[in-house]
Structures are given as structure tokens and as C-alpha cells.
Amino acid sequence: MAMNRRNFLKVSAGASGSLVVSLTLPGCAGIQTGYEPDTGEWRPDAWLELTTDDEVFFTLARVEMGQGTYTGLTTLIAEELEIQPEQIKPRFAPVAPEYRNPLYKLQLTGGSTSVATSWEPLRMAGAEARQMLVMAAARVWNVEASDCRASEGRVVHPNGIDSLAYGRLVELAAKEVVRGDIALKPRSEWKYIGRERGKLDARAKSTGTAVYGIDVELPDMVYGVVTRSPRRGGRLLGFNGDQVRAMAGVLDVFEIERGVAVVADKYWRARKAQDALRIDWDFSDAVSLSTKDVFDSYRSAADEDPGESERSEGSFASAVEEGDRVVEAEYAQPYLAHATLEPMNATAWYRENRMDVWAPTQAPDLGRIAAARVTDLGPDDVTINTTFLGGGFGRRLTQDYIEEAAAVAYRIRRPVKVIWSREEDTRHDLYRPAMLHRMKASLSGGELTGWHHQIVGPQILDWYVRNAAPAQYPWAPKFMYDTLGSVGLMAEGIATPKDISAIEGAIEYPYRVANIDIRHTHTDPGIPISWWRSVGYSHNGFAVETFMDELAHEAGEDPYQFRRRLISHEPRHLEVLDRVARLANWQSTLPEGRARGLALFRSFGTYVAQVVEAGIENGTVRVYKVTCSVDCGQVVNPRIVEDQIEGGILFGLTAALYGEITLQNGEVQQSNFHDYPLMRQYERPEVVVDIVDSAEAPTGVGEPGVPPVIPALGNALFALNGKRQRSLPLKADV
């Protein structure tokens, strides 16, 4: 065996003589599942395997939900291994502590972290394997390894003619000892990183051979649907079970924790039986709020509690006292659904004191906890088989749909697929929280001297910790699960990371202002919430960049020049701002009825500036063009960056124009795309994505396109008609 301890790499021979390179991703060194120097024991958390049949397998620890991990992470391996990315066969990782995301200590995909956390270790794994293959070939030929080279899946002899395929060398390579660090290829020699290539999963997805959760088929499989309380907290009193059980194809009707499950031999028979259900609910302890009630409670909370200080510099009170003008504004954003095109679903099979689950999940280790909760099994008895995901956007970080499937399978003892309808997916989502922002700024002689931002609303961890805490300690008995969650919340910011979901994007306010006061008033009306694409950056971006536009107007200054003057100390912010202004011809005249708006925002380590060109046609807001400049560090595949930024822009525009979940007496009013619409193809604007050529460490692109487009559109509408909109969605008739 050979091991480079500095990089936590291990080399071994597989059972079939294959070459296996194992590695621990950054940040995992402190987790007990990594290398144990006292015992010499090694438990790898990811691996690359080369077989004697010239196959190359890569275990992918991050799920693929359209964001490009399947291609991007594989490209990192391919670059150093000197093979084409198409030659590598990715496979989704099983649940194991070794596959945890080092930033979250959970096995989840989110936060635009996949490339950032894998950038160096995956390249190192490829380089280590390449070096061992070269050393093995040199030993065969009795030449110096330094005189040999790897190319296109082969090691080439110093004579430039003879070569050996990797497959013929793997058994010998596994016995080689690598001493010292292996140099990674310099940027000037990259063949695949930084180059446009198609996605490795494109053919499977376009031909229908890619298996999503909803595609899973098993022998003797049946179908389940669940009717849940229309109001959170509703308690089941009774239902007409005998009548529904008598219907054709119905196998059973029974209560589970989340409602009433119907199981039938066919999906539509299950739906037809569900329509015949008559359920009595007790709503005495249920949520009964309206949307107005939610925001009234936010305003009361803001009046009574100035909030916990999250960032304080200088003295905002003195800036107000000494300034000649104070500008105030209040911004409100509604609850938002995720609206993934593949609705929630999972297939579960309970047998012989174990359970297999097939699910499109962003957090398979939390899925194990969800299944264990509702059965007599422990997490180790549950196997999660991760499929492709038909959209995630944070919704599939919460495992309620797996919990339901597990509960149904535990009762039925047959493989059962539980599918949510679109209406159920919309009405029983865990939403992007509604938020309120109170802004105040002081101006003195046209200079911005003070900035105050009070954020009012809940924290997502309060809702997420239920299964997240037990997943970090899967050895804990189930009776401790809720206790672990409570302890995690109590220890927040002390023993566990601080939840910044409400304040991210606000506390990093980048403009040069001497006096800054940022606060969070924590209040929760009891509506279920979860992570939503770009999370807190989405609502804070709207408040911060709309208010900056208001201040530019108050100061009588061009919005671009106003921002530029206050951001000159931040070179990466400044570069994307200048680039987007130039690309969008910021100063040029537009046709009558059109205007431009600008926003600048950094999220998930990525700098994004956007200019939106918009107007109003036939009483409807029309977005004509979005120009975007993005600095995400070193780029693995420019096409994926462009796709993700454009997707984020369209996602953000959908939220800006249409996104709104409303409540009446505790019930969600929206149900499907007719009343919770997505942007249609005919509405799609021209999108121009400009990528900064950077040598900085790579950052994420799945989410940073969302936050700036919403305020940029609002700012464009203000430039068009002089009417400032401080609540979402944006309207044409204000």
C-alpha cells in the first residue's frame, strides 16, 4: 500500500485486482471516520477505481439535480488522470459518514459547495493514480518513470511509440509506493478544466434512460398516496376507511403520522380512492393565520424587539444625528414554493428487518433517519439508493416524503412508491420564509454615512434540525432523536454552527460606509420553512440592492456610479460591476418604454453583477434582456457556469414576477402552475453571461444568479415609471 498522508490518500488493490485510490475530502480530517494515525486504520470517504478491463469508476458523493456535479467533479478526476471525462463512469455514493459534506458534517448537496470542496482532493486522486500507473509501466520497461508520460488512458514509453493501457497496469500500480507530494498539472496544461464540454449525463437524460426517483420500478410494486391536514397542526379524528378499502385495486387505507395513506395496485386507483376519502380533522390546535396576520406579527415583533446585533461598526445613532437626511424603507417578501418539476416521491421496501429506499434526495443520510423514525429499524438497517433528481432547489434537503414512504412500506411489507401530486407538492411544501426588512440610512452632503438593516423573520435550522442532528450521530438510540435536535438548537453558535439563514447577504454588506448596524429580530409564525435556492441571500439581496438604488436616487447620483464609488475598495466586486455596465451599454439610450436596472451581490463566495432591461407591455411586465458578469474563481466547465447562471436568473425572475404563497385561515391558497406559475418559454429574455477569467479558488454557481436579478428588475421598473416597489411579486400596475 502507498499513502500520501498529507493529502489523506490511500491506494489499495480491489477484490478483482483493480486499482483503488481513496481520499478524504477537505475538512474531514477532524471526523473520526478518516485516517487514524494511532492505529493506522483508514476508512476512505470517496474513491476512484480502475479495473483490468480498462473501466474507470468514480464514486460521486454529491447528488446530480441538474447543477452539473456528474460532469464537473468527474472532469477534475479526468484532467489529472489523463483520460477523457467520457471514459469515467460516475456512480452515486451510498450513505456513509465518509461521504459527508465537510462544510456541513452531513451527507448533503447544497450551498453551491460541490466544486469548491472537491477541487483539490479529486485532482490529487487523479494525479496519484496517474503517477502509480506511470511507475508501474516504467518498472515493466525498466526505464525511469520520469521519462514516461500518461496520455489518453495509456502510459507512453520514452521512445514515444510503445504504450500500455491503464487496464494492463492496475494490478502492478496498486503495489507502487508514492513518496512525497504529486504535483498537480499547471493551468497551462489543462485539457478539460476550463473548456466547454457537453454534460456526461445529457444522453441518458435526453433519451429517457436516466433513472429519477419517479422512474423506479420494482417487482410486485404498489402505489401509495397520502392525504395530509390542510392546516399545519390539524389532528385526525376519523375517516371512511371501510368504504375506501372496498374500492377496486385498493389494498389498504390507514393512518400514519402525517395523515391518511391509501395503497393500491395502480397509481390512478390510489388517486381515485383518495378522492373518495372523507376525513374529519380537528383544527383546534392548527395554524389559522392569514398572510396579513403573518406580516402583522412581523411588524409587531420589529416594534417590540430591535433584534440581536449581527454586525456593528461605528455609531449609526451618531451618523443619524450628524447627517442632513435620513432615508427609511420597509421591504416585504412572501413565502415561496420550490416547484421542482419532479414532485416529491420515494419508493420503499421493508423486508427481513431491513429497508431499501430509492429516492431523489439531496441528503441521503437524513433520509435514513427519516425512515428509521417510523419503523422498528435503526439507521444502519436502512439503505438509501440515490437517483437523479428532477430539481432540488433545497426542497429535497428535507426528508418528509421519505418518511411517508417508509411508514407506508412498513405497514404494507411490499415495495411501494409514494408520489405527491402537484397540488400536494405546492400546498405541503416547506417554503422559503416570508421576511420583513426595515432599512434606514443617513446621508450627509450626498455621502452615505450610516446603514441600518433590521431583518425580521424565522430561522430555517429551527425546522431542519429534527433529522439533521440525529444524522450527525447515527449511533444514537431513536428515543434521543428529538433531544439531539433540541440540544443542537440550544448549542447553536457555541457547539454547533450559527444559523445565518436569515442574515446571510446582509451581514456581508460590502459598501464602504463608516457606520453600520445590522440586526435580526427572530420571530416564527409557525409556517413550515426550509432552504430555497440561494436561501437568505434571495430576500436580503432584494432589500439591500433595492435600498442602495433608492439611496442613489436620493443622492442624485447614477446608480452605477453611486455603487462604484462605494465599492472601489473591493476589486472583485468592482470588476464584475464595471464589466456588466460596459457589456450592457449602461449609459446608452433605450427605445421608448424600456429602462435598465442594476444590482451587485456576492453569495456563496461568487461575485455577480446584473443589468436588467425591462418594460411594460399590455399591462404586463416584460423582461427583454439580462446581462450578467460573474466571478466564480477558476471554472471547470464554462458551459455549466452559463447554464446555471441563466437558470438562476430565470428562477429569480419567476419569483420576482409570480412567486407568492398566500395563506387564508392557515391554508395555502395556491395549488398548481395555474395559480403558482413559472416563467414560460415565450417570456424568456435574452441572457448574456460574462465569466471573469480568474485564478482564484473555485466557488459555486448553482445559486448566485438568483439574488441580484430580483432587485435589478425592480430597479429597472423604477427607472421606467418612477414608482418604487418594496414588496414582491413586482407588479405592472403600481
Automatic annotation (TrEMBL):
Gene3D superfamilies named in the record: Aldehyde oxidase/xanthine dehydrogenase, a/b hammerhead, Aldehyde oxidase/xanthine dehydrogenase, molybdopterin binding domain
Sequence segments annotated as region (Disordered): 299-320
Tree of life domain: Bacteria
Domain Aldehyde oxidase/xanthine dehydrogenase a/b hammerhead: 207-285
Pfam families for this protein: MoCoBD_1, MoCoBD_2
GO MF annotations, alphabetized: oxidoreductase activity
UniProt-listed InterPro entries: Ald_Oxase/Xan_DH_a/b, AldOxase/xan_DH_MoCoBD1, AldOxase/xan_DH_MoCoBD2, AldOxase/xan_DH_Mopterin-bd_sf, N-heterocyclic_Hydroxylase, OxRdtase_Mopterin-bd_su_IorB, TAT_signal
Protein name: Oxidoreductase
Protein's organism: Marinobacter salsuginis
